[in-house]
Predict the structure.
Amino acid sequence: MKKCFGIDLGGTTVKLGLFEETGAVLEKWEIPTRTEENGKYILEDIGNALLGKMAELGLSKEEIVGAGIGIPGPVMPDGHVAFCVNLGWKNVNPGKVLSEMLGGIPVYGGNDANVAALGEQWQGGGKGHASVAAVTLGTGLGCGIIMNGKIVSGNKGMAGELGHVTVNREETEACNCGNKGCLELYSCATGIVRLAKRHLAASEEASVLRNLETITAKDVVDAAKAGDSLADGVLEESMDWLAQGLMFVSYVVDPEVFVVGGGVSRAGDFLLDKLRRHYDRFMVMAAEKPEIKLATLGNDAGIYGAARLALDL
Amino acid sequence: MKKCFGIDLGGTTVKLGLFEETGAVLEKWEIPTRTEENGKYILEDIGNALLGKMAELGLSKEEIVGAGIGIPGPVMPDGHVAFCVNLGWKNVNPGKVLSEMLGGIPVYGGNDANVAALGEQWQGGGKGHASVAAVTLGTGLGCGIIMNGKIVSGNKGMAGELGHVTVNREETEACNCGNKGCLELYSCATGIVRLAKRHLAASEEASVLRNLETITAKDVVDAAKAGDSLADGVLEESMDWLAQGLMFVSYVVDPEVFVVGGGVSRAGDFLLDKLRRHYDRFMVMAAEKPEIKLATLGNDAGIYGAARLALDL
């Protein structure tokens, strides 16, 4: 059976995986990301890591059907990366460079959020579904759209920028993007903390959150789970806005399933049940609604999706 | 050169067209839609019309590469129509029935709004672009999404239901769908009339609209073009909400171009310039934004798109 490599290139670590075509992971390891001198050593390090692994396991290049790499920035359809702030790159085609190092094994590049979504669609929470919208609730809000098993990048790579849809025109605080009322202001770790501070300031209601010097999204989730009513109200509001965002996705591409991952999703069904309830409220028109499921691959979604990029299933 | 038929099945009229594979229309005609007895004669009438045209022009079935038909209701990927209220149909596969009548010529079915969007992408305002979002501002607001030259129907046919995305949570009036604050409440002929009445009631501002017994969307456009400030404000608000809807489409699938059609779009660039200005305001993040263009095929978009369905370009 043929094999492929999945590469998830992050700002501090490169995650690497060797996969069977079926999606079974054979090896998984990491190397540091050397960002010095505008990241000029990164691809060399990755190429050597892959060649080393092939030598170690006695794999010929004929046995490797290809490799995929997730990049933390915009990637053009031909794999060209005009710039990547986190890595210091300008005008690199990482797939082309790696392919040359690997003796012609094809290497495909994609944006890391989209690639992670592809991983969840292939082997994670969206397994068995051809069209999946994967939402990542981390420090910010990310989203990747997979249709018929392929990443939807959009014409200028803006597809899945769900964090910046305007949901609340009444909002007075500005988002990093310059707009006001973006979904990311409410529905991610930072957004939950922001909402918590706002709810605390807006009332005198007792809450364990008042005793904390700094508040994290996990504090809010833990308090809500323990019955803290103010914390619960914060999560309700956060999921209400997110549900509106999922509605937009449904009424534009109507995916089979939503998969929710990222640090905040560790709150599990306690949080997702709120999201499902608000989503159902918005989707009055829909006879059958897509399921909202938890992501299952965690930090490995990127290497899975990158490996999937290399396969023409 | 091979030819194909495009059929646009409406509640009162069936529009038919014979096309070259290149998109050139050779013949265009109409027959009435006989909805009596739950529409049982409709497909027979269409089949006979096509067979008649082939006989008239001396075309053999080998010269016809296929036909497409746009249906005013939901169509499953296999062409099955579970119900179609306007026609009285239940559990019909119109493509299959027509194909049998036509001696095996393949016939493909699709939802009429999506098929019209495909027509605009193929030979209309979106010509030359592989991914197009076509918005129709008629009595209601319709939308069809075309990606890589193919219709995006979505899992349950809800893709492109842009009229029912919630844009305004502060709205107190309900939409037909049961929700409040749907885009369709503001951005279509009915929505413009509704906004006009609201603006008239909310101020004492002089306006020619005050002299009218009944107000149409065209009245509002004409008044605004003639310098009526209240009417202009109505169109500004209408296009402001629509711009927010286009933003959702951009941040979900990022099309190359938007094409705006339907009766309201006859207002032309006077209206579209307002839309473009509001859209640009929302899309602060985007370095390059998709163009917003006028549809060009008018009522023929359906037969063009249906003909395109029949071609595997």
Observations:
- The mean pLDDT of chain A is 95.
